[in-house]
Amino acid sequence: MMAQYLEIKAANPDALLFYRMGDFYEMFFDDAVAAAEALDIALTKRGKHDGDEIPMCGVPHHAAEGYFLTLIRKGFRVAVCEQMETPAEAKKRGYKAVVRREVVRLVTPGTLTEDSLLDARRHNFLAAFSQVRDEAALAWADISTGALNVMVLPRVRLGAELARLAPSELLVAEGSEGGLGEIVSDMGVPLTSVSRGAFDSTSAEKRVAGLFDAASLDAFGSFTRPEIGALGAIVDYLEITQKGKLPLLRPPHRETLGGTMQIDMATRRNLELTQALSGGRAGSLLATVDRTVTSAGARLLERRISSPALSLDPIHARLDAVSYFSEHAPQSRDLREILKRVPDLDRALSRLSLDRGGPRDLASIRNGLIQATELAERGLPDAPHLLTDALNALTGHDALVDLLDAALVADPPLLARDGGFIAPEYDEALDEARKLRDEGRGIIAGMQAEFAELTGIQSLKIKHNNVLGYFVETTAKHADAMMSPPLSETFIHRQTTANQVRFTTVELSDLETRILNAGNTALEIEKCLYDTLKGAVLDASAQISTASRALAELDVQAAFADLATSENWARPVVDDSHDFAITGGRHPVVEAALRQQGGAPFVANDCDLSRSGDAHIWLLTGPNMAGKSTFLRQNALIALLAQVGSFVPADAAKIGLVSQLFSRVGASDDLARGRSTFMVEMVETAAILNQADDRAVVILDEIGRGTATYDGLSIAWATLEHLHEVNKSRALFATHYHEMTALAGKLDGVDNATVSVKEWDGEIIFLHDVKRGAADRSYGVQVAQLAGLPPSVVERARSVLEMLEKNERDGGETKALIDDLPLFAATPAPAPKPSAPSPAVERLQSMNPDDLTPREALELLYELKGLAQE
User: Are residues 60 and 22 part of one domain?
Assistant: First the structure.
C-alpha cells in the first residue's frame, strides 16, 4: 500500500495527497506534518519506512470539503486520490492485491465548484496571462458558472485588471513569475506556474476549439496569438486539475480594453468599491447597494460595480429599466418575490457537467425554469427593450421542465447513490423493484412476529448489517433454548457477542437475497435515469445559461429600483459632454451608516466640475474631520453609480461620460517593498498624472503632506497646475496648504471651495456644508482637543500657534522665535477653581414644575432669562 502511495505522491509533488482509506482521507510523511499543522488536527504515526516511523494524519471523507477550504485559504493545493474499486474486487486479482487508486481531481483556488467552498454571491475566476513578444493578453474563466472571457492587455495594465476581476488564481508560463510577482503580490492572487507549452498558440487553438466541437475559433471571433495562448492555458489547466472532466464553458467572449471605466487598484481600494479597507464586504459600496435576491444577480451586480460601462447605449438602457420598475412598484414587488425562489442555475449546471452534482441540482434546474416560465407568462406591459429581451429569454423550456417535473420528487436527496429521487409511476421497472423491496421489509416484520411466536421470545429481533446481512438476534439468556432441539432445526447459529447471540434460517437467507437484489436493482435503475436526466439538462445547457443571465438582469434592475425608491435616489443624466454637476449629493455608505446608528442626517452638498462652467477643478480647504474626504469620495461614487446604470444618491446629477476614475486618498507604509508613506503617495500621484485624460475624474487628498512643508507645498502646487494645464481632468483637490488658494485667481479652471465650520466658545462645530470660498485656518488645535489630547498640551499648542502667527505677521524669523520660546513645562494643569453657583440654577432648584400654572411658567421663563443676563 505504501509503495502505491509513494508512486501517486511522486506524480503530484506540489499538492497535499488526500489518500482514500475506507471512510477517511489519510496523509503521510511531510504532507501529514503540513496538513496537521494547517488543519489543527492530531499527528500520529503508522508503520515504518526505511527504518523511520511514518507521520500520518487523516480526516473523514464526508467532511473533506471543509478541510479543502481551510487548506486552499492557507495556500495549499490538494490532490484527491479515490479508491477506484472495492476491496472485494481487488481480491479477485490476488489475495494481497492493493485496491486500485487514482487522483480524480486537483483542488486549487480557481477550480472550486462546491457550494460549501464558494461564496454564492461572488465569482471565482481562474485567470491566465500570456505574452508573445510585445503583445499580451489576459483570459479568465469561472468554471462554477461557465463564464469565459479574454482581452488584449498591455502588461502595464495587468494590475488594474486583476484589481477589477479579483481572480482566485493566476496562471503564468514557467520562468515569467519574477516579473509578475510584484504586481500579483499587491493583489494577493495565488500565482501558479504551468508549462510554456500550455501557452503555445498553435496547440492552444486546437485545444480550445475542441472544447466547443469546432474546427477553429473563427466562429467565435478574431483572436490574437496571446489571447489564444491564454485561453489554451486555462483549458489545459482544467484538463489537468479535473482529470479530463471539463466543465461547461460558454464560448469565449472578447472584451476590449477601454470598454469600461478605467479604475486602478489604488482607487478601488480607496473608494472601497467591493471590499472595505478593514477587509471583508461589510462597509463597501457593493454591500450598501446590493438588494439582489438571487446569487446570479449578486454576481452580476459585482461585475457592474467593478466595471462601469463607458458606452451610452447600455447605460441608458439600464436606467430606463430602473425607471420602469420604480414607476411600476407592484410589478417590481411581484417579480422580486418570484426571483427569491430561483436557485443558482449556473452553478448547478457546472456541478452536473463535472459529475459533482446530484438529484438536488436537477431539481434546482427544474425549479429555476418553472419560475422563469412564470415570469415570462406574467410579462411586463410597456417595458423597455432591456426587460422585454430578458423576458423573451425565459421561454422555450417547457419540454425540459415537464420531463424533470414528472421524473423527480419534490425534494430529492443530495446524492444519486442515496436513491429515492425518482417520482413514483415514472418508470414501470423501478416501481416493480421498489414494490418488491418495500414488501420485503413488510415480510421481514411478519417473519419476526412468527419467530417470536415460535420461540416464545418476545424480545427477538430481525436485524441487518453489512457483514452478516439479515439475522435473528436474541439475548444470551434465551440462546440455549434456540440452540437446542426442536428450535435448533430451524435456527442456525451465526455469531455470539458479549450480550447477544445471532442466528439465521434458510427462509431468511432466501428472502434476504430477493430483498437485496430488489433494492440494488431499484438503485441501479435510478442511477440510469439520473444519467438520462442529466444528459437532457446538459443538452439544453446553452438555453439554461441564457435564462440564468436574463434572470440575473431582471434581478439587478429591480434591486436598483427598490434601492432608488426607498433611499430617494434620482435618475442621473449621462451624456457625451464634459459636464459634472451634482445637486444635493450624498455618500451612500456613510448615509446608510448614520441611519443604522440612529445619528444625525447626512448633510447633502452640491458639486459642479463641468468644463462648460466656471471651473472644472475645485481646491477644497477646511479643517480635518469636517468632511472633505467624504465629499471627495461621494462625488466619485455618484459618477461610478451613474455609469453602472443605477440611480444616484442626489437630488439631481448630470454626468458627462467618465473614462477614468482616479483616487488618491490616504496612504500607509509599504514596508515589504521598502516604500514610505510619502513614497506610496508619490507613486499613486505619478500614476494619475501620467494617465488621466480630459474625460477623467480625479480626487486628490492632501498631496505633499508626507514631507517637509515647502517640499510638500511645491509638489501639491505643481500637481494642481499639471492637472489643469496638461491632463485637463475634472478634479477635486483637498489640501491644508492655504497658500494654494491663490491659484484660483491665476488658473481659469480652478475655484476655491471650503467645508464650513462654526467656532463657539473656543471649540468648533462641524457643519459639513461645502461652499465656494477658501478657509482662513485649519483649526488643528481644536481638532486635537476633540481627539482627547491632555489639556496642558492643547493650551501649550494654542500659545505656540499664537506666537508663530504673530511672528509671521510681524515678519520675524522662525528660528529666532523658537530660540525665545520657553520650553514646555510637563506639569499637570491646575485644577479648575470651583465657580459660584448660578442664580438661575438656584432658582430652578427651588421650584417644582408640577405646581406651576401656564401663566406662572411663562413668568418664570422671563425671570430666568433676566438672571442669565446678569
Answer: yes
